Amino acid sequence: MVIHSEVFGLKLPLLDIPAGSVLRSALAGGLSCALSCSLLHPVDSFKTRVQASTMSFPEIIAQLPQIGARGLYRGSIPAILGQFSSTFLGTAARIPCEVLKQRLQAGLFDNVGEALVATWQQDGLKGFFRGTGATLCHEVPFYVAGMGLCAESKKGVQQLLGRELEAWKQ
């Protein structure tokens, strides 16, 4: 049975995703976030060196051969593991909340309690993970952009204040 949702007067089918694919989707999200983190880690390492140095940008560029790939990937394992695990675990909590939010936005239910009970009765646990693949396609680019924006925001605040932020404010 395909349940339809009406949004802006349009009847949209809600995709039915088997419960087994939820784990695969969360794993895929974690792996894609870990891959993007591993690909962008050298850029992050270079950015960190630029921020921490008193040298000019061209002087730091000239040091890249001495730093080498190993130096640019220093610290990558904890970063990659952290991105994988937070994405994987975050998916388990965020997607059910997103499903409930969308059902309420679409006007299918009047309140959260009603949405919870009806979702459980209609589809059981797998109903709370409907649309997992699409949600991950939406979320992963935002994780990557969010990491960059957070780092740039921190840098901007430090420049505005004219000093380094204390560790607890970062």
From TrEMBL:
Transmembrane spans: none
InterPro entries documented for this protein: MCP_dom_sf (IPR023395), MCP_transmembrane (IPR018108)
Keywords, in A-Z order: Membrane, Repeat, Transmembrane, Transmembrane helix, Transport
Location of this chain's protein in the cell: Membrane
Solcar repeat ranges, renumbered to this chain: 74-156
Principal subcellular localisation of the protein: membrane
Bilayer topology: Multi-pass membrane protein
PROSITE patterns: SOLCAR
Domain of life assignment: Eukaryota
Any one GO cellular component localisation term in the record: membrane
Family, per entry: Belongs to the mitochondrial carrier (TC 2.A.29) family.
Protein name: Putative mitochondrial carrier domain-containing protein
Lineage, opening ranks: Eukaryota, Viridiplantae, Streptophyta, Embryophyta, Tracheophyta
